[in-house]
Write a structure and sequence with these properties.
Elements lengths: L3 E8 L3 E3 L6 H4 L3 E3 L5 E2 L1 H8 L3 E7 H6 L13 E4 L5 H4 L6 E4 L3 H12 L3 E6 L1 H9 L5 E7 L7 E2 L10 E8 L4 E7 L2
Parallel strand pairs: 1-8, 1-9, 5-6, 5-8, 6-7
Antiparallel strand pairs: 2-10, 3-4, 9-12, 11-12
Length: 187
């Protein structure tokens, strides 16, 4: 069975977005240009190609802020979205890569695990979903892409964990614009 892996880009001071949900500076490492014709850098393409995910898990806010990736999210697997309702383009089957699930975090993760078919589930956010997964003991690994910028404010990744969480450093890698850290969550 696969792992549950949080895979997210974060500023050096622990934010995943500015107060107005801007992630452009944080994700600059992954794109040669940002806009209607996003083109991924070699570094990002390499990560996507090494992808071990069978599904991506995210919250409705991430889905909305991303513009639902215009129906074509970057990692070519199903996306399981925790939400209370289903958008029309998903209901109609136009955007078939999305599976919407309501309920608590455990129910939603069970669906993501089922959809992943034995491969790992990548948790991409937002912060609230990641915090819920960590609090519930669902996360096996944290993959942090740390960008050398201090945002000063915004959406903090680890605000509401409700206590200490031990991690074991497994791997680091320096990229052109990021420092990657891979941690195992000690359970």
């Amino acid at each position: 069975m696969g792992k549950v892996i949080v895979d997210i880009t974060v500023s050096l001071d622990g934010f995943i977005a500015t107060p107005d949900d801007d992630v452009e500076r944080l994700h600059r490492w992954a794109f040669t240009s940002i806009g209607a014709d996003d083109e991924y850098t070699a570094e990002a393409r390499e990560l996507f190609e090494k992808n071990e995910f069978g599904a991506i898990f995210a919250g409705r806010r991430t889905y909305e802020v991303s513009g639902a990736w215009s129906g074509n999210p970057p990692v070519p697997v199903p996306y399981v979205i925790l939400s209370h309702d289903v958008p029309e383009k998903v209901k109609s089957g136009e955007w078939s890569r999305f599976v919407f699930v309501s309920g608590d975090i455990e129910t939603a993760m069970a669906k993501a695990t089922e959809v992943a078919g034995g491969r790992s589930v990548g948790v991409m956010g937002g912060a609230d979903v990641i915090q819920q997964c960590l609090k519930a003991g669902l996360v096996d690994e944290l993959w942090l892409h740390v960008v050398p910028v201090l945002l000063g404010s915004g959406i903090r990744l680890f605000d509401h964990l409700g206590g200490q969480q031990e991690l074991e450093l497994l791997h680091t890698k320096e990229g052109p614009e990021t420092f990657r850290m891979l941690y195992r969550v000690v359970k």
